[in-house]
Design a protein that fits this description.
Helices cover 37% and strands 37% of the residues. The protein is α+β, with helices and mostly antiparallel strands. The relative contact order is 0.13.
């Protein structure tokens, strides 16, 4: 009898704590349901990889990220340097040395004897003398000259290209570049400066992906029109680009230049502000620019019809000078040039530009939705749990697991549909199918149409809230936090009558 009484008391205790026990088990099921969600995440990462490969295939043939640099001048110049020409001359002269030798002589008595005798021995000696002759020689050096004024105007036409089912945002840019160079007065700066070699000057322009060039005009310099040739001839600074030699133009102190350039690109367009004063204007119909680089536009206007931006960058914003000497020269002014290794590395480090930003691409939206999976599985289970407590008809744990699988299928449906339809339509179809499935399934379990209708309404509001969170980037954290607060309040309401173990 005592054993029967003990068993009855234990059963009674578990019945009193049924709410707590079911809560613990349902919580465990929620974490188990994260497994199929993680599989959906792996599938998403695989699709993102496929999409990146498709975008890479498009951009490799259309044009990659573009950075326009230049133009700059590569100028040879001569410096007169005093040298000493040393010539070695060999001189020969005869020297008489007095030496002692042994000589045999016959004495009076006829005997032979050896006696020392001093004699003169001539010797030829060779001497090498260095004859120093002063002379003046010309040393050839090079300098990089940056523009005094540099103006760039870009018109960017965006376009979406397809590779299979995967889209990629690309653009075509029409650029107009003009400005002027001013030759520095090196005679005041460099000892022995002689002259510039005007007919060997090269003007170099850099473009990161030259294979995407579609059209380029002749270079208009002063009164001449010159054609560009491929290659930069200045790979330390401009790895890829084009150049022209100014040998056909007349000697100058100031040189004005202009040319037009049309090229393709994708994702971003940047420039290097090499002018003492650099002015850049950009216009595009793309409504989502993201300005990047070391300096932002002075003015910008962004709207649904596109954006426009202007930069006005003085040379003081940079860390390198207008003239960079590539050869070692005596008495070089520090104001004119600094060491080659420092200057050349800094020429390409200071830049500005724009990314054609895609604010929320499809895969990003799906990824953000999956991040809320534990919250929505929990909310779905909580809704079912509240419904079952109001009708005193428990839902089996297996039925909870099947419901969790249905919630996980929502993300797989969303991923697969969004590759073919707009995200909004994909979300509506996926949410409608899953909410309907769960409602019909739980309604059949509890056999209460009114409660099933409440379940449908609650789930619809939850998925509508998730959609709002995904689309409101600036307020996503606020909305997500508000939703968590509401869930906590509901949990407090449901669990307020839990009795402790007696």
């Amino acid at each position: 009898m005592q054993e029967t009484s003990k068993i009855s008391s234990i059963v009674s205790m578990f019945r009193k704590q049924d709410l707590l026990i079911r809560g613990v088990i349902i919580t465990a099921i929620i974490f188990i349901m994260l497994l199929p969600t993680s599989l959906v995440m792996e599938t998403l990462q695989e699709r993102v990889s496929y999409r990146n490969e498709a975008v890479q295939s498009i951009t490799s043939s259309w044009g990659d990220k573009q950075t326009l640099s230049g133009p700059l001048m590569l100028i040879p110049f001569y410096v007169n340097k005093e040298m000493v020409d040393i010539k070695e001359v060999v001189e020969k002269k005869e020297v008489i040395n007095r030496v002692e030798v042994q000589k045999k002589i016959t004495d009076k008595d006829g005997s032979i004897m050896t006696v020392p005798v001093i004699v003169d021995a001539p010797q030829i000696i060779s001497e090498t003398k260095a004859i120093k002759t002063p002379k003046m020689v010309e040393e050839k050096h090079y300098l990089i000259l940056l523009p005094e004024d540099l103006n760039m105007d870009f018109i960017i036409d965006d376009e979406v290209r397809q590779y299979g089912i995967f889209p990629a945002l690309v653009y075509q840019s029409n650029a107009k570049i003009h400005g002027q160079f001013v030759l520095p007065k090196l005679a005041d700066e460099i000892k022995g400066f002689d002259r510039f070699v005007i007919d060997e000057i090269e003007l170099v322009v850099g473009l990161s992906d030259t294979s995407a060039i579609k059209q380029i005009s002749n270079l208009q310099v002063n009164e001449a029109s010159l054609k560009f040739e491929p290659g930069s001839n200045m790979e330390q600074v401009v790895k890829t680009g084009f150049h022209t030699k100014l040998g056909e133009i007349k000697p100058f102190n100031t040189l004005t230049f202009s040319f037009d350039l049309q090229f393709n690109g994708s994702r971003s367009l940047s420039f290097l502000p090499w002018g003492r004063n650099t002015t850049v204007n950009m216009q595009s119909k793309w409504p989502h620019p993201s300005f990047t680089g070391d300096t932002l536009p002075k003015t910008r206007n962004i709207g649904d019809s596109g954006f426009s931006a202007s930069w006005n960058i003085p040379s003081l914003a940079r860390s390198y000078n207008q003239v960079i000497l590539l050869g070692e020269t005596d008495n070089t002014s520090n104001e004119l040039a600094t060491k080659k290794t420092t200057q050349l590395s800094q020429l390409s480090s200071f830049y500005a530009g724009v990314d054609l930003f895609e604010p929320v691409v499809t895969y990003n939206m799906v990824y953000r939705a999956i991040k809320y999976s534990i919250l929505f599985i929990s909310l779905t289970f909580l809704t079912c749990f509240v419904v079952e407590r109001t009708i005193k008809r428990p839902i089996h744990y297996i039925q909870y697991m099947i419901t969790g699988v249905a919630v996980s299928l929502f993300y797989l449906c969303l991923l697969s549909l969004s590759e073919h339809l707009s995200f909004s339509l994909s979300y509506l179809i996926s949410a409608g199918v899953i909410v309907s499935m769960i409602t019909l399934y739980i309604g059949a379990v509890i056999r209460d149409k009114k409660k099933a209708g409440i379940l449908f309404s609650v789930l619809s509001v939850l998925y509508a809230s998730l959609y709002s969170i995904l689309n409101m980037e600036d307020f996503a954290l606020l909305l997500g936090t508000t939703l968590l607060v509401l869930v906590t309040a509901v949990l407090m309401l449901v669990t307020k009558r839990i009795n402790p173990i007696q």
